[in-house]
Structures are given as structure tokens and as C-alpha cells.
Amino acid sequence: MLLMAALLVAAPHVQAQTTVTDIRGRQVTIPAGPPKLLIDDGRMLLALALIHPDPVSLITAWPHDSDRLGQQVYERLRARSPQLDRLTRVPSSAATFSLEQAIAARPSVAVYTLGRGPSDAQLRQFEAAKIPVVFVDFLSQPFEHVERSLAILGQIAGRTEQAEQFLAWRRARMARISDAVAASSSGRRPKVFFEAHAGISACCNSPGRGNIGTYITFVGGHNIGADVLPGASGRLNVEYVVSQQPDVYIMTGGPHLAKAGGYVVGPEFDVDESRRSLRAMLGRTGLGLLPAVKAGRVYGLSHQLLNSPLDILAVESLAAWIRPDLFPSLDPAATLRELNERFLAVPLEGPLWTTLH
To answer: Which domain holds residue 266?
Structure first.
């Protein structure tokens, strides 16, 4: 009896057969048995780390795109699960899809980013190989799809209850912000200049309509990129940015911009290094003229916090910076501590954002 109990404790989770509705609205049957997932974006490991104590144990193939995870998170996952480096390598959502590599990996479920991965004709080939394909979306419409996408991952990983626990927590925090913005008597929304991947190329990469811009609207700001960019993102020229006289300037960055001399932030850098790179971005032609710069309302955010369920940290940071009149006591650092204590299998450490002073 003792031996049987020990075996039961040590046995991996066995998922019962279930049916999920993916982000495209497709009904997909997930087979019974331990999950063996193929993922096309390493950031899905971070999403799974919110709902499973050993997210690597769920994976059979991934892109080995450690840069999307962040080096510290990657090393901690690898220390806990050394097999991470030995798992089958498949193309990322940013690379050319390979049907042959995907089928050769023999996953129990292949999880792809919406708009990437297999065509409809290739889906039929997956079906012939008896490999179900599920689409999620943390990338193209994160504001609308993050919650459903994490719930889908919870279903296919056999962690529905844990996913709902996290989502209920996130939902409550999002509601505090939306309720305060809705109740505000202030008619004017501060103008926000948001530059993605600051320093990766000539100024200025900006969200347009939807995507990251939706978060700016959600917290009570006005995204100046949405006035002229018809798509989800594009480039603004400096003359336009200056003419709009933005009240707030927010940029994103990370370790991937170190070689380009752009804005860097993350556990690999201390606060002073990150702040120096933030200030360096203001030396580019014309940006010193912005009211946001003159008022000291310039902020930097780790791009890693976008395109994942960790977006609550980004949302709270944006709310505190854009609408301090509504959120004077909002503390994203305290939210990060709670995330680490209650949910994440591997702790996430800062600095993940930077202020000018």
C-alpha cells in the first residue's frame, strides 16, 4: 500500500480527454494522457509558470527563444528542469513555420500564436497525424485575448482551476482601474507618446489602434499614435510627436536593445544602468522639446511584461504614470511581490520599469 501511494504521488498528471474552444473559435479535442505540448513562443512558459509548479514538464518542443523569456527566468527554469535545453527545437512564431518539424516532435497538442503557424491546409495534415492544434493569442490583441488564452492553456494542461484562480485575481485588479477611470469626472485624457523598443531603430515605433494602445485607453490616457496610424503599430516621425505636445512619454525596452544602445531594463541591469539608458534616449533630436520631458514624466517599461498574462504589471504601471490623479497609491512593486508569492513557479525580479528620477 505504501509503495502504491508513493507511485501515485510521483506519477505525472494524466489529463482526461476534453474539448476546448481555441481563440479562433475552433472546437478541438484534447486527448487523454500527460500533456506534451509544442509551443511556438517561449513566453508561454512564463504563462504556464503562473498555473503549474513545473511548467517545463508540460513541454516536449519549443523554440529555445530564451531572449523572449529573459535570461534570468530562463536560467531559473533550466536550473529547476535541466531537460529544458534538450527539448526538441521548433521555429518560433517570428520564424518560418515548419510542418515537418512540428509533426516529428509528436506533441500531444501543438499550441500556436494566432496568425502564425499552420495554414488551414496544414491543419488537415496535423489532423491526419492525429495531433490537435490549438491557437492562443498573447500578441496581436493581448488586451482582448490574454484571459481566454490563459484559460485555454489551463484546459490543455489540466490546470483549469489554477488558471481561474489567477484570472480572478487579475480580473479584480483590472476592475479597480476601469472602475476608477469610469467614475472620473475629468474629461481630458493626458496625451501619451508610447515608443516600443526604444533605440532599436530611428525614432519612433508606436502603437496605433488596438494592441498596446488599448491599454493606454483603458487606464485613462490618449495614445497619440492612434490618431495617425491605421494599424496596430507603425512609425511616428519626431516632428509629429513634438507637434502633439504629449504629457507623458513611455518607452519599452529590455536586454535585447543593449547592443543597439537602446533602453535597457531587467534583472541583468541595475537601476542606475537602466536610468542612464532611459536618459540617453532623450538625447535624440527633438525629444528634449516634449512637455513630458520638461515635466519629468518619462518612464520605461520592460517589453517582456507585454504580450503575456503578466500584463497586469504593465497596466498598473501605465495607470500610475498616466493618471496619478486617479491612482496616487497604486503600487506595481507590491503586485509583483504578490505574483511571485502566490502564483509564479519561478520568481520574476526587477528592475522591470524605470522612472526618470
So the answer is: 186-355
Residue 170 belongs to some domain of the structure:
no
Contact criterion met (CB below 8 Å) for 214 and 246? no
| Whether residues 25 and 97 fall in one domain | yes
The reply to whether 6 falls in a domain is no
Question: Would you put residue 261 in left (φ > 0), alpha (ψ -120 to 50) or beta?
Answer: left
280 dihedral zone (left: phi>0; alpha: psi -120 to 50; beta): alpha
Q: Is residue 17 domain-shared with residue 146, that is, in the same domain?
A: yes
Averaged pLDDT score across all residues of the chain: 93
Q: How many helices (H) and strands (E) does the chain have?
A: 14, 14
Q: What is the pLDDT of residues 13-43, one digit of tens each?
A: 567 789 999 999 999 999 999 999 999 999 9
**Looking at residue 70, which CATH number applies to its domain?**
3.40.50.1980
Span 145-154, pLDDT tens digits: 999 999 999 9
Per-residue pLDDT reduced to its tens digit, 215-251: 999 999 999 999 999 988 999 999 999 999 999 999 9
